[in-house]
Amino acid sequence: MARLAWSQLRFRPVRLLAVLAGMLLATTAFTVLTAASRTAQLRTTGTVSAHFVPAYDILVRPKGARTALETRTGTVQPSFLSGIYGGISLSQYRQIASIPGVSVAAPVAMVGYALILAHLGWPLPAGDLARPGRHLYRVSTTWVSEAGTSRVSQPASYVYVTPHPIHFVSDAVGTKEAAPGGSTLVCPAQPATPAQSPFSVAVQSSSDCWSKVTGPGLGAGAPAVPNPGWGTSWVIPVLIAAVDPAAEAKLDGLNHALASGRYLPEHARDGAPAGGTATFPVLAAASSGLDEYAITKLQQLTPPQSPPDMNPQWLTRAAAQPGRTLATERTTAQQAYQELLSTMSRSAGLGSRAAIGNYWSVGPVTYRDSATGTLTPLAVRNPASVWYTGQAYNGPFNTTPMDNADTQYRKLADQAPATGTDSVSASPQIVGIFNPAKVESFDPLSQVPLGVYQPTDAGPANAATRAALHDSDLLPNQNLGGYISQPADLITTLSALPALENTASYGSHLPTSDPISVIRVRVAGVTGPNPVSLERIREAAQQIEQRTHLDVDIVAGSSPEPTTISLPAGKYGQPALTLTENWVKKGVAVTILTAVDKNSVVLFTLILIVCVLFVANSASAAIRGRRRELGVLACLGWTRPRLFTAVLGEVAAVGLTAGVLGGAAALPLSTALGLHAAPGRAVLAVPVAVGVAVVAGAVPAWLAARADPVTSVRPPVLGVGRARHPAGITALAAVNVLRTPGRSLVGALSLAIGITALTMLTAVTFAFRGVVVGSLLGEAVAVQVRGVDYVATIATVALGVLAVADVVFLNIRERGAELATIRAFGWRESALSRLVATEGALIGLSGAILGAALGLVGTAEFTGQLPGAFFLVAGIAVVTGATITALSALLPAQALRRLPAAHLLAEE
């Protein structure tokens, strides 16, 4: 039997080479693609492992802090600290820190925003003041922010200079001028009431009176002021947060970010200087993070002939008067913030301009989610009363920043003094300056926001926004309720919170019992996305949730995911903007590795199926060509098991040869392509090839063994059936395809699998874009994964097309006499070629339609959705498959020219 098999392989070289070529192609393709898959997996696993560990592994927030949007999308907002003012107690913090496996538990207690005045000024022109008589000046300021798109004009203020004495009466009355005609009120006090708008002329306008004789008229003992001046009054929002200094140093190296001074003490005690004002230690940020500047203009107005009563009505009329511009100054938020730091360093205690009389908390942003995934923040209305603190807006020195008249997206709440006065209760004492840029920079591909030191990244997402923002990010301004919230400017300690949570000074609704907003937890022993590390994180998270009942998010293995934000137009010139924010997508690392494995299994399973069908078709054709020979052997007494073994042995021998050659060719080919192909994987090609050959040849061998010997040795004669008259080439091609349904089905299935793989690749790409590639870590590995996918898919489609071409070629060989007869009837060569090409196109079209349908089903299973665009992709795949197979059928059609027509007709 072995000698018979060897003789068949030896004396039928054409059939041998055909089957061997098919199996060699399948084996080599499988081996190389397996090596490519392994290389991609190694690269992907290495990339994911290298970027797995973020700043912390677990984020703990108060119960109910996780939004419905975060839950639905599996994300954490980059501004997750917004709107969280307390909710976690100190005892819960100690519980978390004591859990086995917790390496660092770093809490953050958000206190709120304080509004602190920083005045930048210049003297009035000395030459102008030397002229006799009264002088009146108007100071107008325009606040410019949001990359220059927003411009808010503040109601003008005025400076009045008189040659007569003036004297300050009281906060309730104001300043009077002792003119020759009697004492006149010139700079009246303007106490604010809840009914007034904080952005009105009555609140925003100020009047400053000066005497060339008595100066500001503050009386004996007042500081000497050499010259009246004008300037810009910045009201800087300063965000205060409290941390555990030791834990923060371990988590992000805040202690190494100092620019000057010293680090926060772990156990700070409140000081009580003269006046009863408590002090608390702070680290101050070197920069405010605000992107804003002010353009302030000094204009000289017509000198008044009599003392003006600068009440709100007078201020409104004066704003419309023409004036002569004397000077224009441009100041920045950074300049004002540096002045603020200087003021805080110079003064402390009661009456300090840097002291905190009241502060504000802001809520989170809520969004409207569109079908495309774009988020639109929803505007809110904050009442004017939120700025009213008892006697004046923001205390005796400050006014509400004009930016707060713009669109707001966050609810504001004021922590006003419970006594109904503007008494100062706490004053920050700077112990050091830190540079936010020097806080430890974590891996950008797995970065989770620290939520304290940097504003949310909100970059332009389209050309129009890039042009509007001058290719820069949208940064915060003085609008406390604006979309972008600023980072913390003053960092204090948890032990200093009693000074800021004094209910006698700041109200009874402060979170004194549970002051902590979030806790960031790092787990010990986490080295990458391996099962041990993942189990350690999961166990720690479970322990935290069980012991504290807080909201717990595992952020290890997360990655920033660009999220599109559609920001509506503002009230003062800011156009509608399309921004990109990096939200934190949880579980990206595990998703990538799972998706890569799942994708590789699906595609390479399809390749194996196509290989089996290809080899099965070739083996079936070879056995059909030996029908008479096998029938003779059966007549000579060969049993069915013996025939089955002989035929299957021949196919297995071809598989063995193909495996050896394929494995040998795969090694240098993989090396040339830069793939990781181990010798063991090449050796594996041998049993794979033999297995494919045995599986593919089993059915043809079984059919050969089961054939009737008498029927096999007789020439094939079709039975008489009902006559059919095809109407044309297409109809005749359809009849010919249906004459060999099994063979045509094999070709159609082979192509269907290739088209299925092509459609599935689109699904995989979509899934990667929506789940994995949507994140920055996913983008880093996407090309590695997709490159192998495309190679595998192209190989699968190519094998399917070759299978169809093989079916067409076998049809030509078996119907040689029929085609010779048709040619004898006068058919042209071109008509025969069209007939053969049409047969290939029909097989290809049926396979492409079936493959597209299976691909859509696979898409729905893989991605969990079936968007309309996929039907368009499926249609394109159908047209492509039919076209390629029609073209591939032209190659075997060339065999028509070599048909020995006379010999075939003589045999017939």
Molecular structure report:
Helix content is 44%, strand content 20%. It is α+β, with helices and mostly antiparallel strands and 908 residues long. The chain folds into three domains: 1-52 and 585-717, no CATH class; 110-493, no CATH class; 726-908, no CATH class. Strands 1, 3, 10, 11, 12, 15, 18, 19, 21, 22 and 23 form an eleven-stranded mixed β-sheet that branches. The protein has a five-stranded mixed β-sheet with strand order 9-5-4-13-14. Strands 2, 20, 24 and 25 form a four-stranded antiparallel β-sheet that branches. A hairpin with a 4-residue loop joins strand 4 and strand 5 (150-162). Helix 2 (13-50) packs antiparallel against helix 21 (776-814), helix 20 (741-772) packs antiparallel against helix 24 (869-893) and helix 22 (816-824) packs across helix 25. It is elongated and about 145 Å long.
Briefly say what this structure is.
The chain has three domains: about 1-50 and about 585-715, no CATH class; about 110-495, no CATH class; about 725-908, no CATH class. Helix content is about 45%, strand content about 20%. Residues about 350-355, about 390-395 and about 420 have low confidence and may be disordered.
What is the number of strand segments? 25
The proportion of strand residues reads: 15-25%
Structural class by secondary-structure content:
alpha+beta
Count of folded domains? 3
Largest sheet: 11 strands, mixed
Gross morphology is elongated
Distance between the termini: 33 Å
Number of helices: 25
Low-pLDDT residue intervals, each spanning 5 or more residues: 348-353, 391-397, 418-422
Average pLDDT across residues? 79
Tell me roughly what share of residues is in helical segments.
40-55%
Rg result: 42 Å
